[in-house]
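Below is how a single chain appears once it has passed through the pipeline. First comes the sequence as given, then the structure the pipeline wrote out for it. We keep one example in the README because the format questions we get most often are answered faster by looking than by reading.
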Amino acid sequence: MLKVRTHNVFDVRDEATIRSQRFDYEGPIVRLDGVSKKFSHFMFGPVDLTLDLKPETVTAIVGTNGSGKTVLLNMLVHWIKPTHGTVYIFGKRYSEAERWIKSRLAYVPDFQEMFYGLTVRDLIKQHERFAPDWDGERFKRLANVFELTSIDVPFEFLSKGNRERALLALMLSRRVPLYILDEPTNGLDLFVRARLYDAWRDMLEEGASILMVSHDVSLLERFADVVVVMHQGRVLGVYEKDALLDDWARFIVEDEQEVRKDCVSHFDACSKEQMTSAGMMALEKGVLSSIVSSDRVKTRAYLSELGYRFQEHRMSLEEIIKALIDFVKEDQRSLHR
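Resulting structure:
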């Protein structure tokens, strides 16, 4: 999280209201039980997922294009209904408490075309009428911070960046315990991004939670507390970001070429169970073969026991996510051999 702010965006006098609104429910904020959705070109799920979304935390959903990230968000806000299974938000189903649920979350979609034909002023009026948590004074401050000037221009005539600024200012002007954001930094320049990060910091200090989809790994490394990895409509796992960065590593054997060949041969002969027990996820072959480990302590001990000299390197979040997905792809390939 950023340590320096250029703007104090939010007046936090209503912090107690936000917290009381959230804590009238105790338990995981998001729960999916056996949820699936069949499209003509894509199968989402089945997914069983529980997300605590604790106050003052950021949870990021990551994965390759087409992995189902936006489908998941749209299910959480009831824009898409599952074919099978049940979605619980704040412990309730939409069928029994849709208004109650939607009064506790705000959504910034990546599909801006749905607002074509409307101006920002039109959307302000909608929020004033239908959102009891709307804070007009907050919107004025955010509009100033994000330098919104064209509130009477139809959405389709605004640039992508200005449309994104407008949607962020609108949704962040609702005082809710959960903000759901789909690619929130798309189209934003560096200056507006810095101001958005300030706004997020203030929201989190109020006790809110953020659930987002983003391909911006530098953003995730800075803000995310929890990472949800998706691939081909499935959730591969839910991870504490700091634990991933602490536990994963890449090991490179330093010994002479013949010894390295022996090392490669040894690991090629290892069963999947042997590899996993030593924390090893994959062997990357090349001029210098390397071992990708999800448990650096176990792998370090295993290599030392075998008598190999090696270098140990930390991995970036992007490298770790790619390795997780590659591991699943390799598993799928092995099933079809």
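The radius of gyration is 23 Å.

See the next section for the split statistics.
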